[in-house]
Amino acid sequence: MFVIGERINGMFVKVKKAIEARDKSAIQKIARRQLDAGADALDINVGPVRGSALDNMCWMIEAVEEVTDAPICIDTPKFDVMNEALHACSNPTIINSTKAIEEELDRYVPLAVETGSQLVALTIDKTGVPKDVDGRVAMGATIITKAMEHGLDMRDLYVDLVIIPVNVAPKQPAAVLGAIGQLKMFSDPPPNFILGLSNVSQSCKERSLLNSAFVAMCIGAGLNAAIMDALDHELMEIAITAEVLLQKQLYCDDYIAAYMSNK
Amino acid sequence: MAVPDVKENFSGTINEVTIGATSEEGGTRTSTVTIGGETGYPMLGFEAEYPHPPAFALEISTAGVEGWHDECRKHLADVAGDLGAWAAKCEEWGADMICLCLDAAHPDNEGRSPQQCADDVKRVLEATGLPLLVWGTDVDEVDNNVLPKCTQAAAGENCLFGTAKEDNYRTIAASCLADNHKVLAEAPSDINLSKQLHILLRDVGVDLADMVMHPTTGALGFGMVYIYTTIERGRIAALSGDRLLQQPVLVNIGKEIGRVKEAVSPAQADPQWGSHEVRAPLWESASAISYVESGAELLVLRNPEALRQAKTAIESMWP
């Protein structure tokens, strides 16, 4: 499981304050905690913070790069910010994200290839989030085709099946599972499948429980990456256990410790 | 149309482990052995790197050649009573390492004392410049008394000491850490158990890079296929990035061959199997070559003729 820690996001009050106060150590602390908890990469999102999104993004990247060589997942909807930030980054990078719209893919996929980045592509188009399996599969196919056309290695592509909260869209989790099952047959090797996992439980009461159950189900369907709360200890353990049960990690009695020591 | 590139790339690499220390490194060895470092499945020279050929150790035993079959004994008649001369002879025969088995300390034998065993280790180190593998008795209490003395006696020589097992690893791990030796980790024929043992050893402070794994050994015709596939499966996990299985692999072949009727039975007893002189070393070398093809990097043999055959064969096909 490729875990991208989600906590460096201006949406969180601590992060917002740190950005505004230019408090590098606060950002670095969150970075380290996530990596220690088993995150493979770190998402960086400036969120709704005052000032230039690009300046804020570059400052956060700089802060994180001072403490780790882990890949950085640059999370911004703005192409210009993405482009500049990618070039400012010396750690490996992941573009987060493009939508399944042809014109967008024609900009983002070449950017990924040019900068040697990996790319997250959402199954969202101009009509929004598809309501069923078929819509996701169709958009997934568009993404895979475009990636191939521009020469992006499938191993560097993350198709994000876009989960929305179960309390407002109860049919969506099953649609995500069905879409992963179908899309993994589209190419050999298949692309990676990713989710912004915590979204499934947005505004729900049992957030951690929902995230945990869903991550296990998704891993069973073929999910191999997630932008998620690496600091949720039990969630991480469940994800690792699911992989052990599918023999994606080799069992040993101390398999949690084994997984962590393989970081 | 271009031919598609079918080369496989792996994220993991097998650890490189060096055994032995020369005078520059604080020891007295005249040569060292480095194993591991492969970046792909065995023997696929077109897609992977194989920086070190497999290393061969010849076994010598503090209990002499009692119980060894005639085709081994005939080479050893002059030296079996003298560990130093035996070790020197192995060097002459082209072994890369000496495997000293402390069999005499076994309660079924003479129950040699820890100090006597340590003296044996010293004697071998003086008689040969080759790196040393020291193998205990496989009796936990005995090993826990004997091996710490021996690691001390060989301090600075960067030997490989075995065997650490899931229910008896702490003493040997601590002794090897104290005296800077490598640890031979033995788990029977199961990569999950190997992985568990490596994590236990790591938790008491042994670096993953300082371990060699022994998945136990089966001779050709007597369980070799099980161990072969165990090594293969471990290799797949290791190359896929599982650091707990990236340790190079040792197999102890000579001892196992010594139990195989087809290899040890004299021609008079079983004339249908042909010349014993041909059959015995061939059984041992064929087992060794097969294990190299599964990924094993360090092979312990008994018969010098088997050593010659296996080395010649591996040299001719090593990528």
Question: What can you tell me about this protein's structure?
Answer:
- The complex is a heterodimer of chains A (263) and B (319).
- With 263 residues, chain A is an alpha/beta fold.
- Chain A has one domain: TIM Barrel, CATH 3.20.20.
- Chain A has an eight-stranded parallel beta sheet, covered by helices on one side.
- Chain B has one domain: Dihydropteroate synthase-like (TIM Barrel), CATH 3.20.20.
- An eight-stranded parallel beta sheet of chain B has the order 8-7-6-5-4-3-10-9. Chain B has a two-stranded antiparallel ribbon with strand order 1-2.
- In chain B, helix 7 runs parallel beside helix 10.
- Chain B is globular and about 70 Å long.
- The mean pLDDT of chain B is 96.
- The chains are: A alpha/beta (263), B alpha/beta (319).
- Chains A and B meet through helix 10 of A and helix 6 of B.
CATH topology title of chain A: TIM Barrel
Structural category of chain A is alpha/beta
Work out the radius of gyration of chain A. Answer: 18 Å
CATH topology of chain B: TIM Barrel
Q: How are helices and strands ordered from N to C of chain B?
A: EEEHHEHEHEHEHEHEHHHEH
The beta-strand count of chain B equals 10
